[in-house]
Amino acid sequence: MSHRVRNRRRSIGRPLAALGAAAVLLAACNGDDADTRLEDATADDPIEITMYYPIAVGGPLENVVDGLIADFEDENPNINVTPVYSGNYDDTTVQATTALAAGEPPATTVLLSTEMFALIDDEIIVPFDDLAVTDEDEAWLDSFYDEFMANSRDAEGTTWGIPFQRSTIVQYYNKEAFEQAGLDPNRAPETWDELVEIATAVQEGSDVSWGVQMPSSGFPYWLFQTFTTQMGVEVVSPAGNEVYYDKPEVIEALEFWYSLSDEHGVHPPHVVDWGTTPEDFLQQEVGIIWTTTGNLSRIRADATFDFGVAPMPSNVQPGSPTGGGNFYIFADAPEQEQRAAFELIRYLTQPEQAAEWSIETGYVAPTPEAWETEAMQEYVADFPEAEVARDQLVNTVRELSTYQRGSVYDLINDALQSALTGQVTPEEALTEANESINELLAPYR
Amino acid sequence: MKTSFEPAAADPAEGVTRGVTPGGDPLARRSFLAPLRRIPNGVFAWALILPAMVILLGFSVVPMITTVWASLQEPGIGTSIGPANYERMVNDPVFLQSLRNNLLFSLVTVPVSLAIAMLMAVLVDREIRARGFLRMALFTPAMLPVIAAAAIFLAFYQPNFGLINVIAQSIGVPRQNWLGNPDTVLPSLMVVMIWKEAGFFMLFYLAGLQTISPELNEASTLEGTGRWTHFRRVTFPLLMPTTLFTSIVGVANSFKQVDFIFVMTQGGPNNASNLLLYNIYLQAFPNRNPDYAAAMTVVLVSILVALAVIQIRMFDRRIHYR
Q1: Which residue of A273, A280, A406 is in closest CB contact with B179?
Q2: Is the ipTM of this complex over 0.85?
């Protein structure tokens, strides 16, 4: 129905559109007095919506979210938002789908951008295009960095998610350790050869125990995508229904990752924990770590030494996958709640708010306009490292996102860990995983 | 039996026929409760059971039935019933590994934590200085939330700044990546489980020790029996009922307590620390395979029941009930 509404409005122009919309909506709501329309809702009788959101990085961010929501409610007294902090991304998925099964879906939830295909497959979410009524709405949908929209739009160009807390992987390096080892403290590794060289030098020449650390617990597929991107290959088809893990370049990428500990001895052996890797860096136990920009604010706050942030090195090309969370609107929520959620999401991604969220967390503000704001300009002038992730965007690929996401992740994560712990060779691990995953995805091709 | 706490029933016959409040003014009771008398005893009994029954049915029996029903759903469209989910299990290497891991995990953690619990209980049962403090100290791990304990151990086990490696290095042992190595991850988790469970079971053994008559101790002393012999021939056999109870609870816990996996390893590396219930969680929620998870749940419960029966049978012959 909403498609029809939108089309009609476009044809008769904007001023009339509002009237027409009201008429159509009135007709839609005829005889259903209990459902107040968004336009009719007042401060005394507001539309109530729930928003679930995860926090996957360090720091007391609930207050920031509460503050942003309070500002939104001041501007929109007819909407009442209940933000629910719901743990990490997996917890949030579980809670949102459980609430959905119980018939009380939240209007909107922040979930991993990679959930998109699975959520479409399960018919859990609605496209934002259906809720965009004005040209202004449409323009907003086009205001984000294309690299982030790669994980938010499907192959046909339908927008299913709105980038909110998005990230890339960057290098953090300990400048003091670099100096101690006689290295240039303003230059991080720019190629794979340099990575091995510098990591070896810093491990031998300073107090750190290890040259470099790339976490491989939980979701190693993500970090692995930095290596494959730097090899110049994509591991997944745009439609999310086929993977290419058996390509020789991909196997070489994993062989390189494994060689850092096995051959060069500059990386801790076996699997390294995601959550404690920033702590390893802060304790000056490692010279270089690769982790999300989402950890930037925390590392900046807690580092007792001078550190640098640098884009990913290059082998064939530089590069990193994007990552992080998108807003989704749930299909089972009543339409007026969906529309209220639409307003909320648009508010939260406006330049001022996006800039505030980015400054507080380290996530990459998802629109170019956010980087033009005064607050952001001031922040970046004081802390140029914040720009690294944005500047790296041109070299990013979409994070691995497929149908049957959970099972696919299990297969590839297990394969990567079995190779990184030396149980099987990278080639065996990836060939086998590739076969199993493509078998799983066969029905979607 | 402490009869002093039971309300004194002046007229036992009346208490039986009414089945309601003892004492009070007979006149007032007649006026208030008169309608109740007309309710037949059978109906009245059902009315009393009803709340508990509704809760039990709603939260235990019905979910059990729906779980079995869900586990029998064939995947795909339609409503056919069949053992597909169970067949899938037999060929699922991750399931089989989580099962193997879990059996090994139980086989090690339960006996060891019981042995340590018994030892600790015997030690702090004697008249020693700071006994209350010692008991509390030993029981503390059981009071800590699992997640908090797991977060602490996660830091302990870290290869770089972890306490265990710092100690190991200071005595010349090379550093280990405890949770990152498939060979050491499960033993590392076993240590956490034993540390957590031993204090809890100690409490039951302390209670068990209170029931052993001090005369036996005196008799042993008079006979000149050694402390070890006394433990082996007197204390240990008399603690058997407690051991049966704690071992059943322990086995159940070793299958049920997976919280620390979420914090410490997420089942990795390569499923080396994946336990059955964690695997069920993964299938039910992140992977959205509730039917397959239901089938695995049925298997898990069957294993627990089978193990409990074996334990009861095995111990029964050797228990000295008094």
Answers
A1: A273
A2: no
